[in-house]
Amino acid sequence: MARLSLTLRREIVNLSRLGNSISKIRAILAEKGYVVDPKTVKNLLQKWETHGTIRDLPRRRPLPKFGPLHLRTMDKLIDANREITSIGIQRKLREENLTISTSSIRRVRQKKLNWVCTKPRYAQLIRRVNQTARLEYAIRCIENKETFANAIFTDECSVELDHTAKLQFRRKGEAPELIGRPKHPTKVHVWAGISVRGATDIVIFDGIMRSEFYCQELLQNGLLPFVRKAFPDGGYRFIQDNDPKHTSGFTKSFMVANQIPWWPTPAESPDLNPIEMLWHELKHCLRSELKPYTLDDLKRMITFFWKDRVTPEKCQKYIGHIQKVLPVVLEVEGKATGH
């Protein structure tokens, strides 16, 4: 639509001052051959009431563009604090006498500086002393061309009663489906071990695990029967984490009495225990496929998964994955690998 002349603008204001409504003003102008949009009339009258003029207001001064100095400053800000928001960057740039909109900051951050926003990835927190131990362990395994052919990797895990997957699709415009979740979900604890010759039976238990229970129930009824079947001539290595129940005097005495050769590994190193990946697969299968709704369902489906899905070939695949992790431990100097 063509811009209104100053004469027509004055007439609209005069008609309004005489008490005419917007629809009445448009009707009067239509009789004179002028077709004016009601929004145009409304905006003109608001301008008159606010600024006392019918002329065009001066346009806002365009925001200055980013220069090389400001790009470097912004890049350093993000590199120093990778959680800084566009508003935080804007405040810092104002200290450099530069006013930039947050939308421009977001655009420049991605297109010119190549910063992308992602959710943080969390990994095991590893103390410095354990970083050194992990590095030495990785060097020793690589130099000795370790294959873990006679290793039995064991661990415990807590499994919650959960039947909802982590992802859900919905059509555009649909509200997301709300799924109830208990504040303290029901859960059980499981223990098992894997080797290239297969897996032990899985043991499901409740309550707090103590050294006596660990030895008399898990090792006695879970580990030793598997050893007699898979390693009848001995020659195996028993691998567990450094939980206090695993390293207590009672547990050490039990392992000596039953000739269990414990092979120590670095603390805070779940990425060096391949059974952790099997726990992840178990939980994903329960959430997205088996979907237990009761505690009995949960126990039954855990047992089903272990007997049906955990094959020697799968155990060999996960144990072989350590060969990919060890070089990364060297590369990051013992820190978390993300595996």
Automatic annotation (TrEMBL):
Domain of life of the organism encoding this protein: Eukaryota
GO molecular function, one term: nucleic acid binding
Annotated ranges, domain Tc1-like transposase DDE: 152-298
Pfam family, any one: DDE_3
InterPro entries: Homeodomain-like_sf, RNaseH_sf, Tc1-like_DDE_dom, Transposase_5
Xref: SUPFAM superfamilies: Homeodomain-like
Database matches in Gene3D superfamilies: Ribonuclease H-like superfamily/Ribonuclease H
Record protein name field: Transposable element Tcb2 transposase
